[in-house]
C-alpha cells in the first residue's frame, strides 16, 4: 500500500449525548499519528472548542458541518488522496457511508483508509451483521430487522416478549427500548422509525452480564484484544449508562478467553482494519453468550480502554490504516516493547456516567437502553472499593462516596423501585437498601447486579458502620489498622470525618482527620500505569494514587514544575472547552521551561493523554487528593483558573492550606463568587447590576417584587446545581413555584433578581496582569438576555453593539480587573438596554467562550493568561482592533433533547445545551447558517410552522414571515399568529392547537412531517405558559423536526437561509480566513 | 478481615514484607516469580511448571470467581491443569474472600488450605515485581507464626521427576498414535489432542519411548531447569535421528534444543503472562501467547540445520525452533493456553497434519 500524501479526517461536531469528548481525543491522536508520517492533514470539524481544531495539529481545519454536502465540497477543493472516517464517532461514520453510497470517494479517487466502508455497513445493518455472524457460527440475539410497523409486530409475535427494539445507524442506542407487550412495542417502534428506516426487534437478554472487548487488527490479519470490560449493570442498561469495570472481574479464564477468541474470529471475518469494539451478553449461569454489536470505529469505549490501559488505541489505529503491521509499531509507554501485545493491568478501573437529568423539566429519569448521560469519569485503584468510591466523588454531584452522604429518608417501596427501575441514583439506593437491612440476595434479586460487585459495596457499607460505631470515642479511636482499611476501601478523609464525627463542620473535621492520618503515617502511594504490570520499565509518567502499597513508583519532580488542574467531569455547562484551556495552559508552561503536571480524571479528554504533560495524575480534583499531590511534588505553582468551576471551587481551601496558587488571590475569587460581596463591590465601584435581594420570607419577596416588578428570576439556595432557578411572571406563579421548589426560611433563603426583558447580553473574555487588562475579546449574544449564556448563539466580533457601548464595557472591565487585582483569565457578562449597562456576573477564571474567541481572533487568551500566571511580562495587545476582523465567527449551541424523552426543549435561564460549534463566514449570516447547519438544523424545504407567542415576538417575526413567503415557503400558523399575520397581509394557513383536538391539527402535521421547521416562542418562561406549547415542541423533537424557541434567533436564521444559497457558504479553511 | 493472621514474605536479598495470611497458615520456601496474567488462577496454580515456586500475581484482586468443582473429561480433569496445586505459595495484593460464580464450588483460600499451600495478601505486589524485574527471580519464603524455614532453590531439584507420572497411560482412540512425554504436562494439552482424532500414550519423563510404536512424538511442558532431564534428552536424540514428527511445548522446546545440540540459559525473571507477543520468524504474522517459563533456548548455539521458528517481540528471545528439513518443531509458549489466549491452538493441527503426511509418505 502506498502511503497517502494528503488525508482528510472527519470530526464528530458538537458534543452531544452519546457522542462527546472522546472523539476529540481520538481525532487528535490520529492527527498526531499522521503528522509523524509527514502526511498533510485536513480536518473537518465545526467544534471550535476542541483541542484537535487548535493551531498546529491538523495542517488545515474547516469549521464546517460534517454532512455529505460539505464533506464533498471539501474533497472537491482539497483533492485528498485518503480519508479517515473512524475517528469522528457515528456522525463521521454515517456521513462516510452516505458519501460512499453516492460514489463520492470513487469519483474523486479518495481512498478510505483503515476499515473498508463495506465492513462498516456490514456491522451497522443489523440484518447483514447477523448473517455475517451466522456464517462463522457466532451467536447473536434472535432478532428480525424490519422496515415497517406490521413486520415489527409480526417479528415480536415470533420471538416472544419481552423484546428490545433497536434502531440501526444510531449513536448511543437512540430510539431503543424494551417492550413487554404489543402496545408498548407499537409506541416504541413508531418513534424508532423516525430516526432510522430500519429497526431491530430482538430477544431480550435483560439480566445477562454485559462484557466488551476492544479489538485491534492490522491488514496482515494480526489481531489482538487490548482490553476487556465488564458492566456493573447487567444488560438492559446501555453501556454508556452503566458503571463499567476494566478488566472484567467476575469472568473465569474460560469465559474471558472464549469471548476473546470469538471477538477475534468475528473481527477477522468482518475485515476490520484498525480498532473496533465488540459487545457481548454473557449468561450469568452458564457460558452461553450472544454478540450484541460491533462498532467498527473508535468509540467511547475505546477512549476509555485507551485511558484504562495506557494503550493508545486511536494512534495505533491511525498507523494501521496506513498499512503498518502491529508488530512494526512500538508500545509508546515502554518505548522498547512492541505495540503487538495485550496490556496487563495491575489495578482496576471503574468508569461511571454523569447525568444532568435534574436540569430538564419533564424528563423521564429512568436509565435504560438509550443514553442520557452527558459525561463520564474514570477512577483507578487497586481494589474495586477504592476505585468506585473515588469515582462517585469524581462525578461532582455532591456525594462523598458510596456512604456518608447526606442522610435520606426513604421507604422500602421507594428503594425497591429505585433498585429495579434504575435512575441515576441507583447506586446510592443500594446503600439505602443496606441501611434498611436488605440482604445481598435481595439487592441482587432487584438489580441483577453480580453478587461480587454487591459484596464489595457491602464491604464499604460495613466499614462505614464500623467507623460510625467509634463515634463516642472520636478521633482518638482512629487507629492505624482501621484507618488504613478505610483508606484502602476508598474512604476520603471527609467520609471518615462524617462517619466518625458526624455531620458538623465537615470541612474542618476533614482537616482533623487528615492531620491525624498523616501523624499515623497512613499515606497514599503513587503508582505508574505502564501497560505491562511492571514487567518492563515504563518511560511515561501516567500515575494514580492508592493506599494499597508501600512504595512510590517515582520520586518528586526535581526540576521547577507547574501543576495544572483539569476540568474534571463533563457536564452541562462545563466540557471540552475547559480541556482546551487546560491543554493550552500546559503547553504554554512547557514552552516557558517548566515541567508540567496535570491532575484530571476525565477519560474523554486530551489533557489525560499521558504525552500532553510530563506527569499525568489520573486522580480526583478534591482538596484531599490535590493536596496529597502538591505535598508530594512541591511544584512552583498550581493553576486552577483554566479548568472551569471544579478547580475554581478549591481556591479558598487550597489557599488556606498554603498551596502555591498562581494568579488572582483566592480571597478575591471568593469576593466575585459570593453574591453579597460581589454586589457591594459593584456598588462601591459605581457599576450597575440588575437589582436583587436574598430573602427569607414570602412577604419580603412580594415587597421586593413591588419595587422591581415582574418578571423576576428566583433562585432557591436549597436546591443544588441551580436546577430550580426559574423566572416567574405573576404572584400566582411565585407562590406555586416556591411551594414546589423549596422552602423559604432563614436557613434556606431565596435570591430574587430583577429580570430585564429585551436586553442585549454581551460577554467579555479577558486576561489581566496585576489588575491591568492585557488582552480581551467581546462577543454578543444573538438572543436577548434570559437565555443562559451557554445556550446562547454568539457573534464574535460583535455585530450590533455600538462603539460607545464597547468603550463603556471596557471601562467597567478595567475597574473590575483593578479592584479584584486580577492576574490571569476572567469573564464578565453584561446586559445592555437603552445604552445602559449592567453587570450580571464576573468569573475570575477562563470561561466557556475562551477557545471560541481565541481561535476566531487568532489571539490565544489562555496562552497569554498562562504567561501572566507564570510571571512573564505580557504587553497589552491590539485586541481593540477586533472590529477590523474581515470575517465573523458564530458560536451555536447543540441540544440533545432527542435523547431525553419527555424533556421540554425550551431555552431558559438554566443551561441545557450539551455542546457547541463555532463557524466562520465572510458575513454574520453566512457564519450563522453554517453553525446552525452544524448543530443539526436543516434549511426547510417548503413549510414552516410559526407559533409566535407574545406580541413582541409576533412583531419581531413579521418581517421574517414576509421574507419566508417571498422565498416561496408555506407558513402554517397557530390561531393568534395566524390572525396577526392576516392583519398584516402575510398569508398563512391555520393549524389548530393540540388541545383543540381539531383538524388540521398541528400535531398531525408534525407527525406526518408536513412541516420542515417549527418556530414556537413561549409567551414567557413561567411554567403554566410553557406547558401550553409543550406538546408542539416535544412532538417536533420526537419526530426529528428542527425547532426554534427564540424569536431573535429564528429571525436571524430565516434571514440567513432566505438570503443565502448553499453555494454562498464558502468552503474556506481556517488558514484562509486567517490570511484575509 | 476477622481473625487476620499476619505472615511474612522474605526474599533472599533480605527484603521482608508483612502481609495477612489466607489459605494454609504454614511456612514454605521456593523461587519467587511473578505472573502478570489477569485471569486463570485455578489453571495457573495447578500448572506443574510452577512446581516449587512462590507465585506473585500482579493483578491486584484475586479469588473473585472462586474455584470450580472437579469435573472429569475422558478421565482427566476438565477444569484444572493437573490433579493438584503445584505452586509452593501465593502472594497477592487483595484477596477476595467472598467469591461469585455459577461454576464455583469453593473459595480460593479454602482450596489452598486443602493442599496446605500458604497464601499472603496485603502485599505491594507491584513493588515486589519491580524488585524481581531488577534483580531477577530469587529465592524466598513465606514464614507463618515464627515457624521459619530454610531458603530452597527448586532449580537444584529434579522437579520434573517429582511431577511426572510413574506409569504409562493410554487415552482415547484415533487414527494418529501420539506419544506424550510427560515432564509435567498441563491437562489441556491432553484435551487438545483428544479433540483431534488421536490415541494418546502418556509416558513418564524418563521412559524409553523409542521402543514404542507411534506416529508422532510430543514433548510436554514442565518445571525447572531442562538440563536436569538427561534421560529425556537421551531418548529424544534417538528420535531426532529418525523422521517421525516431533512437537515440543515450553520445557519440551528447551529439551528439543538441548537434544539437537544447542544450549539453554536462565532468563533474568522469565516470562509468565498471558500477553507475550511472538512473531513467526520471517513474516509479519504475530500471535499473543500464554507463557510460563524461566529458561530459554540460546538460538546462537543451535546447529545449522535448526532455525528459530518464533521470536519474542518484546525481548527478542527464542519462542520456538524448527528443523529445516525434518518435521520437528517446538514452541516456548503454550498453544494449549488454559489460561490465556487460544490464538495458536492451530499448531496442534499443524503437528497432526505433518503426522498424517509422514504416514502417507511411509505408505507410498
- Helix content percent band of chain B: 10-25%
* Share of β-strand residues of chain B: 25-35%
> Uncertain spans of chain B, ≥5 residues at pLDDT below 50?
none
Total separate domains of chain B = 2
Question: How far apart are the first and last residues' alpha carbons of chain A, in Å?
Answer: 39 Å
- List the quaternary state of the chains: heterodimer
Overall body shape of chain A: globular
For the sheet with most strands of chain B, the description reads: 7 strands, mixed, barrel
**Residue share in β-strands of chain A:** 15-25%
Gyration radius of chain B, rounded? 20 Å
Task: Classify the fold: give the CATH topology of the largest domain in chain B.
Answer: Rossmann fold
Number of helices of chain A: 37
Q: Report how far apart the termini of chain B are.
A: 70 Å
Please work out how many helical segments of chain B DSSP would assign.
8
Largest interface: A-B, 56 and 53 residues
Backbone structural class of chain B: alpha/beta
CATH architecture of the largest domain in chain B: 3-Layer(aba) Sandwich
Radius of gyration of chain A: 28 Å
Q: What order do the strands of the largest sheet of chain B run in, or round the barrel if closed? A: 1-2-12-9-4-3-13
Q: Could you give the order of strands across the largest sheet of chain A? A: 14-13-10-11-12-15-16
EC number (chain A): 6.3.4.16
Pfam family, one (chain A): CPSase_L_D2
Domain MGS-like (chain A): 937-1076
Enzyme class (chain A): ligase
Amino acid at each position: 500500500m502506498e502511503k497517502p500524501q494528503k488525508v482528510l479526517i472527519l470530526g464528530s461536531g458538537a458534543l452531544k449525548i452519546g457522542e462527546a469528548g472522546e472523539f476529540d481525543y481520538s481525532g487528535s491522536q490520529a492527527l498526531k499519528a499522521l503528522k509523524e508520517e509527514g502526511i498533510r492533514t485536513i480536518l473537518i470539524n465545526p467544534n471550535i472548542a476542541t483541542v484537535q481544531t487548535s493551531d498546529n495539529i491538523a495542517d488545515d481545519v474547516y469549521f464546517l458541518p460534517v454532512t455529505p454536502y460539505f464533506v464533498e465540497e471539501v474533497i472537491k477543493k482539497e483533492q485528498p488522496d485518503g480519508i479517515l472516517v473512524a475517528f469522528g464517532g457515528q456522525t463521521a461514520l454515517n456521513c462516510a457511508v452516505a458519501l460512499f453510497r453516492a460514489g463520492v470517494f470513487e469519483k474523486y479517487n479518495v481512498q478510505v483508509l483503515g476499515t473498508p466502508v463495506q465492513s462498516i455497513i456490514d456491522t451497522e445493518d443489523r440484518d447483514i451483521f447477523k448473517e455475517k455472524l451466522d456464517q462463522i457460527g457466532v451467536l447473536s440475539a434472535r432478532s428480525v430487522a424490519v422496515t415497517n410497523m406490521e413486520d415489527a409486530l409480526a417479528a415480536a409475535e415470533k420471538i416472544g416478549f419481552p423484546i428490545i427494539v433497536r434502531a440501526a445507524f444510531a449513536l448511543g442506542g437512540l430510539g431503543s427500548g424494551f417492550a413487554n407487550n404489543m402496545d408498548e412495542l407499537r409506541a416504541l417502534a413508531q418513534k424508532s422509525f423516525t430516526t432510522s428506516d430500519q429497526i431491530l426487534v430482538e430477544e431480550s437478554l435483560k439480566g445477562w452480564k454485559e462484557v466488551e472487548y476492544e479489538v485491534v487488527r492490522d491488514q496482515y490479519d494480526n489481531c489482538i484484544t487490548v482490553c476487556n470490560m465488564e458492566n456493573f449493570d447487567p444488560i438492559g442498561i446501555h453501556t454508556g449508562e452503566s458503571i463499567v469495570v476494566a478488566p472484567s472481574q467476575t469472568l473465569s479464564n474460560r469465559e474471558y478467553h472464549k469471548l476473546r477468541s470469538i471477538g477475534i474470529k468475528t473481527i477477522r471475518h468482518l475485515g476490520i482494519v484498525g480498532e473496533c469494539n465488540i459487545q457481548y451478553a454473557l449468561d450469568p449461569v452458564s457460558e452461553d453468550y450472544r454478540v450484541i454489536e460491533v462498532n467498527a470505529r473508535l468509540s467511547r469505549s475505546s477512549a476509555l480502554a485507551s485511558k484504562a490501559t495506557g494503550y493508545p488505541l486511536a494512534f495505533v489505529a491511525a498507523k494501521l490504516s496506513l498499512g503498518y503491521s502491529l508488530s512494526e509499531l512500538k508500545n509508546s509507554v515502554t518505548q522498547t516493547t512492541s505495540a503487538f501485545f495485550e496490556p496487563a493491568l495491575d489495578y482496576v478501573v471503574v468508569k461511571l456516567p454523569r447525568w444532568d437529568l435534574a436540569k430538564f423539566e419533564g424528563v423521564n429519569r429512568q436509565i435504560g437502553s438509550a443514553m442520557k448521560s452527558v459525561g463520564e469519569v474514570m477512577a483507578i485503584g487497586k481494589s474495586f472499593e477504592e476505585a468506585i468510591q473515588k469515582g462517585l466523588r469524581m462525578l461532582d454531584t455532591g456525594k462523598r462516596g458510596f456512604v456518608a452522604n447526606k442522610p435520606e429518608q426513604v421507604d422500602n417501596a421507594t428503594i425497591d423501585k429505585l433498585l429495579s427501575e434504575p435512575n441515576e441514583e441507583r447506586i446510592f439506593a443500594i446503600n439505602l437498601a443496606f441501611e434498611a437491612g436488605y440482604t445481598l440476595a435481595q439487592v441482587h434479586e432487584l438489580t441483577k447486579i453480580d453478587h461480587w460487585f454487591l459484596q464489595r459495596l457491602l464491604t464499604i457499607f460495613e466499614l462505614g458502620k464500623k467507623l460510625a460505631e467509634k463515634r463516642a470515642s472520636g478521633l482518638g479511636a482512629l487507629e492505624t489498622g482501621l484507618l488504613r482499611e478505610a483508606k484502602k476501601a476508598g474512604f476520603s478523609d471527609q467520609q471518615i470525618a462524617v462517619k466518625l464525627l458526624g455531620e458538623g463542620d465537615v470541612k474542618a473535621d476533614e482537616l482533623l482527620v487528615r492531620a491525624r492520618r498523616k501523624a499515623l503515617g497512613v499515606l497514599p502511594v503513587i503508582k505508574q500505569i505502564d501497560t505491562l504490570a511492571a514487567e518492563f520499565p515504563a518511560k511515561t509518567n501516567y500515575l494514580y494514587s492508592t493506599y494499597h502499597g508501600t512504595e512510590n513508583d517515582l520520586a518528586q519532580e526535581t526540576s521547577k514544575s507547574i501543576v495544572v488542574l483539569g476540568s474534571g467531569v463533563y457536564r452541562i455547562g462545563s466540557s471540552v472547552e475547559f480541556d482546551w484551556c487546560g491543554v493550552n495552559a500546559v503547553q504554554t508552561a512547557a514552552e516557558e521551561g517548566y515541567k508540567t503536571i496535570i491532575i484530571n480524571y476525565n477519560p474523554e479528554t486530551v489533557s489525560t493523554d499521558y504525552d500532553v504533560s510530563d506527569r499525568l495524575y489520573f486522580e480526583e480534583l478534591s482538596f484531599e487528593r490535590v493536596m496529597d499531590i502538591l505535598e508530594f511534588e512541591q511544584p512552583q505553582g498550581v493553576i486552577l483558573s483554566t479548568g472551569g468551576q471544579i478547580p475554581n471551587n478549591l481556591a479558598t481551601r487550597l489557599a488556606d492550606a498554603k498551596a502555591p496558587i498562581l494568579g488572582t488571590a483566592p480571597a478575591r475569587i471568593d469576593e466575585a463568587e459570593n453574591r453579597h460581596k460581589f454586589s457591594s463591590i459593584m456598588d462601591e465601584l459605581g457599576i450597575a447590576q440588575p437589582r436583587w435581594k436574598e430573602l427569607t420570607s414570602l412577604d419580603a419577596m412580594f415587597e421586593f417584587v413591588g419595587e422591581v416588578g415582574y418578571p423576576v428570576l428566583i433562585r432557591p439556595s436549597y436546591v443544588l446545581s441551580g436546577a430550580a432557578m426559574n423566572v416567574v411572571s405573576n404572584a400566582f406563579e411565585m407562590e406555586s413555584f416556591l411551594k414546589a421548589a423549596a422552602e423559604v426560611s432563614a436557613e434556606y433563603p431565596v435570591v430574587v433578581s430583577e429580570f430585564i426583558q429585551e436586553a442585549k447580553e454581551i460577554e467579555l473574555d479577558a486576561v489581566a496582569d496585576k489588575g491591568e487588562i492585557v488582552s480581551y475579546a467581546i462577543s454578543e449574544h444573538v438572543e436577548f438576555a434570559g437565555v443562559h449564556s451557554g445556550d446562547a448563539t454568539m457573534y464574535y466580533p460583535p455585530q450590533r453593539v455600538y462603539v460607545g457601548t464597547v468603550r463603556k464595557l471596557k471601562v467597567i472591565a478595567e475597574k473590575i480587573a483593578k479592584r479584584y487585582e486580577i492576574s490571569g483569565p476572567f469573564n464578565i457578562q453584561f446586559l445592555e438596554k437603552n445604552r445602559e449597562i449592567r453587570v450580571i456576573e464576573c468569573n475570575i477564571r477562563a470561561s466557556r467562550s475562551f477557545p471560541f474567541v481565541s481561535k476566531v481572533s487568532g489571539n490565544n487568551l489562555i496562552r497569554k493568561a498562562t504567561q501572566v500566571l507564570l510571571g512573564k511580562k505580557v504587553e497589552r495587545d491590539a485586541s481593540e482592533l477586533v472590529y477590523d476582523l474581515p470575517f465573523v465567527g458564530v458560536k451555536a449551541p447543540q441540544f440533545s433533547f432527542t435523547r431525553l424523552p419527555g424533556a421540554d426543549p425550551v431555552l431558559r435561564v438554566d443551561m441545557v445545551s450539551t455542546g457547541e460549534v463555532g463557524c466562520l463566514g465572510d458575513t454574520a449570516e453566512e457564519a450563522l447558517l453554517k453553525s446552525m447547519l452544524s448543530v443539526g438544523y436543516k434549511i426547510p424545504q417548503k413549510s414552516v410552522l410559526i407559533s409566535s407567542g407574545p406580541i413582541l415576538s409576533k412583531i419581531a417575526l413579521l418581517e421574517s414571515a414576509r421574507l419566508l413567503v417571498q422565498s416561496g415557503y408555506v407558513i402554517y400558523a397557530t390561531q393568534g399568529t395566524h390572525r396577526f399575520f392576516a392583519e398584516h397581509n402575510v398569508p398563512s394557513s391555520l393549524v389548530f392547537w393540540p388541545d383543540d383536538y381539531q383538524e388540521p391539527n398541528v400535531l398531525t402535521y408534525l407527525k406526518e412531517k408536513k412541516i420542515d421547521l417549527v418556530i414556537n416562542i413561549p409567551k414567557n418562561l413561567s411554567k403554566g405558559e410553557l406547558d401550553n406549547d409543550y406538546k408542539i415542541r416535544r412532538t417536533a423533537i420526537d419526530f426529528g423536526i428542527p425547532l426554534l424557541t427564540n424569536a431573535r434567533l429564528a429571525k436571524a436564521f430565516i434571514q440567513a437561509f432566505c438570503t443565502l444559497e448553499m453555494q454562498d457558504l464558502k468552503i474556506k479553511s481556517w488558514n484562509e480566513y486567517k490570511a484575509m | 478481615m476477622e481473625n487476620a493472621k499476619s505472615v511474612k514474605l522474605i526474599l533472599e536479598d533480605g527484603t521482608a514484607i508483612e502481609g495477612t495470611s489466607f489459605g494454609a497458615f504454614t511456612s514454605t520456601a521456593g523461587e519467587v516469580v511473578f505472573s502478570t496474567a489477569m485471569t486463570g488462577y485455578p489453571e495457573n496454580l495447578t500448572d506443574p511448571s510452577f512446581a516449587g515456586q512462590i507465585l506473585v500475581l500482579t493483578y491486584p484482586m484475586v479469588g473473585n470467581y472462586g474455584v470450580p468443582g472437579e469435573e472429569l473429561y475422558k478421565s482427566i480433569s476438565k477444569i484444572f491443569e493437573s490433579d493438584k496445586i503445584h505452586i509452593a505459595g501465593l502472594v497477592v495484593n487483595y484477596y477476595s474472600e467472598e467469591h461469585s460464580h455459577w461454576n464455583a464450588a469453593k473459595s480460593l483460600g479454602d482450596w489452598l488450605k486443602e493442599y496446605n499451600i500458604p497464601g499472603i495478601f496485603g502485599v505491594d505486589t507491584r513493588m515486589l515485581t519491580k524488585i524481581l524485574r531488577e534483580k531477577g527471580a530469587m529465592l524466598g519464603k513465606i514464614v507463618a507464626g515464627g515457624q521459619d524455614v530454610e531458603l530452597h532453590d527448586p532449580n537444584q531439584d529434579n522437579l520434573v521427576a517429582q511431577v511426572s507420572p510413574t506409569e504409562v497411560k493410554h487415552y482415547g482412540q484415533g487414527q494418529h498414535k501420539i506419544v506424550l512425554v510427560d515432564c509435567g504436562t498441563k491437562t489441556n494439552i491432553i484435551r487438545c489432542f483428544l479433540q483431534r482424532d488421536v490415541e494418546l500414550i502418556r509416558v513418564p519423563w524418563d521412559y524409553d519411548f523409542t521402543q514404542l510404536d507411534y506416529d508422532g512424538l510430543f514433548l510436554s511442558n514442565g518445571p525447572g531447569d531442562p538440563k536436569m532431564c538427561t534421560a529425556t534428552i537421551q531418548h529424544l536424540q534417538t528420535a531426532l535421528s529418525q523422521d517421525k514428527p516431533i512437537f515440543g511445548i515450553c520445557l519440551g522446546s528447551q529439551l528439543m534444543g538441548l537434544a539437537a545440540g544447542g544450549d539453554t540459559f536462565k532468563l533474568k525473571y522469565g516470562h509468565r503472562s498471558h500477553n507475550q507477543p511472538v512473531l513467526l520468524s520471517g513474516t509479519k504474522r504475530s500471535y499473543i501467547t500464554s507463557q510460563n517459563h524461566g529458561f530459554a533456548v540460546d538460538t546462537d548455539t543451535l546447529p545449522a540445520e535448526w532455525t528459530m521458528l518464533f521470536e519474542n517481540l518484546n525481548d527478542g528471545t527464542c519462542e520456538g525452533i524448527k528443523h529445516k528439513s525434518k518435521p520437528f518443531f517446538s514452541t516456548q509458549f503454550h498453544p494449549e493456553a488454559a489460561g490465556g489466549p487460544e490464538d495458536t491452538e492451530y499448531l496442534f493441527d499443524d503437528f497432526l497434519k505433518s503426522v498424517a503426511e509422514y504416514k502417507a509418505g511411509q505408505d507410498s
